[in-house]
Amino acid sequence: MSTSYDLIVIGAGPAGLAAAWRAAQRGFKVALLERADHTGGMAASVDVAGIRVDQGSHRLDRATPDALLADLHGLLGDDLQLRRRTSRIRVGDQWLSLPLRADEVTRRLPPSLLARIAKDSAAMSFRRGADDSYGAVVRGRVGPALYDTVYGPLAGKQWGVSGDALSAMQAHRQAARLSAWRVAGRAVSQVRRKKQATAGGYYYPRAGFGQLVDTLADAAATSGVDIKLEAEVDRVRVYEDEVEVGTQDGDVVTGGLVFSTLPLPVLARISRPAPSLTSIESAARLRYRAMLLVYVVHEGGRWSSFDSHDIPDPRTPVLRISEPTNYRDNPADPADHSVLCAEIPCSMTDEVWGLDDESLADLVDETLGLTGLPAVNRVHVETRRLGQVYPIYRLGYEDDFTEVDAWARMIRRVVTLGRQGLFIFDNIHQALLMAYDAVGAVRDDGRFDRYAWTVARERFAKSATHP
């Protein structure tokens, strides 16, 4: 069976959903193909013990532009809540609030670490740091003490390699966090307390973050988007005047333009004409980090008063523990139990990937004991395994990405976007804005304005590497 569309969107994550919805609003005939049996991608929520939980810790940034925020408020109404952030990070044997509070840093950290931080901060203006790796950039910005205590261990857990084996680009993408630590370092070096905001804010839907993508999917369908679930794309063939997209179940969809949010290595593998051997080899070297999500049901009400806890401690593979019900104000959430979500970044070849649910729950219990967090009254556990969560910016990845991206830009009638499609680790609002710009670059006659899209991509690149 063959059906023709103006635009075919591959992938129903936030970027794909927003692009399909916006294009349909402009009057284009749109098909949206998604391999899973639901929309939303990793931003979708799932049900655990009667509680809607996210696949990791998701928030909509307070910096979301007003125009986009107005659209989301239009879709979600009062269900899009402005919330106060109550996150913490474990530094040494102490928990510190996020965003950092300089007075808390000076009051809680051990004197020996404070002395090292003060020494690093005093020497900061005289240090000319190298910029050839993530480790070198971060040491130059926050000093060796904080790097060894926080950023080095976090890099090892999150990316699976040391900070010195990561590209400096990863540090540039964390510029805001680094600035926060510099503020704390200066306060320590001056040996005084400095008042700061006690918490940052974020937007979050009343029924879980997945409510945002569910509402986008409903809006897309209402606008006429043909959403095809369980449609795993296995070929994209480009012709002079159309693109043919095939799925594993034998369906064929044709259209004038394709927006692909597939991982670049996947697109390179299924595209015809095929890329050059050099591009294929470069695509194979673009790697993604996997993630284990362990949901532990706690009986006895809320487990804590915090939304999330970041854990640099290298003695445990758990990177973060969040409590979804603390992200929102929802009277429908049960009062007698709660759910913890433990995030474990890993490779699919790591031993932890193959552990059963109970063993992973025991690992979470050990982490709670190591970090001084409250014990959990466990009554149930379930897990989810995500194979491709975020890109690994290893040293030298830029050359491989440039090679593959140059090939992708040259494909007629195909545009790559989104986290996977552009090999970027962006925020949800950035993915949505990217979709808006991609649709904005489609002319009324259906032709794609490559110049406008290039300008938009350059703008995103700059916003990702500056505080």
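the 2nd protein, sequnce then structure:
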Amino acid sequence: MRKIIKNGTIVTATDTFKAEILIENEKIKAVGTDLPSEGAEVIDANGCYVFPGGIDPHTHLEMPFGGTVTKDDFETGTIAAAFGGTTTIIDFCLTDKGKPLKDAIKTWHAKSKDKAVIDYSFHLMISEINENVLKEIPKVIEEDGITSFKVFMAYKNVFQADDETLFHTLVTAKEHGALVMVHAENGDVIDYLCKKVLEEGKTDPIYHALTRPPEVEGEATGRACMLTGLANARLYVVHVSCAQAVGKIIEARNNGIQVYGETCPQYLLLDQSALEKPDFEGAKYVWSPPLREKWHQDVLWNALKNDQLQTLGSDQCSFDFKGQKDLGKGDFTKIPNGGPFIEDRVSVLFSEGVKKGRITLNQFVDIVSTKNAKLFGLFPQKGTIAAGSDADLVIFDPNARRTISAKTHHMAVDYNAFEGMEITGEPISVLSRGEFVIRDKKLVAEPGRGRYLKRAKFSQEIEAPKQVVTK
């Protein structure tokens, strides 16, 4: 059915203006004034912003890790994402050494089948380089539309790849039009430090942070940036948490290396002291990289403001406090790494960023949606409000107040890392391809309506489409 959104203020990465949006056949038909509304359902967005749907570039749904599996799957995870104003996610597909890349992709398709309420795509992990992998990478790009590949520089003996694998992946990705992503921590140094403190009988959650100091993230980020420059490739550094990593990214970008950085809401708002909470509650805040001392937050906010970091991912990787996180009692290295952030990513950035003057409204849209669409081959299908784009839209009340709590969130996990935080601004209704997923803060979509997205190759030169104004 045709729909028309009226009386809202449209906000894109570049513009803020009053206009109507006409929706037809899953697409935005026109953006303008006095649009024909005959036969169309009229949606009143008075007093609200209308944003392009959020794009979360970093999720781990139904992911095996540390002897357990993340609590949120593609149903609960995408429902929570939709409530938070996200209409597209890109999940990480883990591979096994010695097995075809395509096997991992099939596994992730099986996990997501008939579950998602919003659209989704996959990144693909590269853990080794050999002739079979090199032959498969171009096929994965062309046939599966997966145009981003992740290399772990940490989690020794689990996910960690060596520098040869990283460098070869950078060269191969550049050749075939893909973007390489890195988890940048020095896994060898972390392994040494963990063994050392455990031998000393230090087992509490705080030692997770103390054995992964900012220097190991900064070193790995700098090494990845240097290898990217040597390969004349491009790099996306996930979950940047500290000043040391930001500095290396700025240095590389100033030297003309194509490096992009992502941070996450947890690093902007929480600090290392959370891991010192008594009664093992600090385990709720164990993820990697770890939370840092509070002063790093100002560095991250400034980097977002100055486009030195470009995106905000959730790094959604939820584990229950009871029954999963407590696997690490007596040994912090056995606490499953990860936290629940998919639902609050958008609202938290609006409340703490826009409302407090740290970033502009247009920067906010760019950070949570548009830049991700451009970097990951979804623009202009996703990430903007323009004729021809998918009608992925968020009607957002900028003055609504709420208190974040596990009692009211829609994730399957038993705690919320932002528990008790009061924020301003929340999604009221969310449309995906012109269909309501959330309407008046209630779920109205059925699991399975979300579609898998094949993505275009990396393009640094994408320009925003011109607005089509109809009078």
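The longest helix spans residues 214-231. Confidence is low (pLDDT under 50) at residues 463-471.
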